[in-house]
Write a structure and sequence with these properties.
flat, 0% strand, mainly alpha
């Protein structure tokens, strides 16, 4: 039975939006990306030689950190304004790329520059996405 037109479709809660519970499919995204990030970090550090325990620890720790930060960002993203949300995604992406670039043996300045360039690109893309897909 159809509802009357004067009945609101949403609740009229006041205050900031609350973080929502994430589905398993959404949680799989940071897990898969974190595992791939950890494997790639260990692969870069290995440099074609034999794998060592330190490289394995580096891969596991960096992958877990990326999983934790990605999941935390996904769980609070609905409570953030679009500018802050785009900045958070840009920071996570740019710092991740900068760290991976630093593992290749490049200088800190070049790695930071790569992180800033890729973070800026991620900010532009994610801000555009959030701006065009929000109510």
């Amino acid at each position: 039975m159809a509802a009357h037109a004067s009945i609101p479709a949403r609740s009229h809660r006041t205050g900031p939006p609350m973080a929502h519970r994430l589905s398993r499919a959404v949680l799989a995204i940071p897990v898969v990306l974190g595992v791939a990030y950890g494997f790639y970090a260990a692969y870069i550090q290995r440099g074609g030689g034999q794998a060592t325990g330190g490289q394995t620890v580096l891969g596991v720790v960096s992958g877990l950190l990326m999983i934790i930060l990605g999941t935390a960002l996904l769980s609070i993203q609905s409570a953030l304004p679009r500018e802050v949300r785009a900045s958070a995604y840009a920071t996570l992406f740019g710092s991740g790329i900068g760290f991976l670039h630093s593992l290749t043996g490049e200088s800190v300045v070049r790695s930071s520059g790569m992180g800033l360039v890729f973070g800026g690109a991620m900010f532009a893309v994610s801000f555009y996405w959030f701006y065009t897909h929000e109510d």
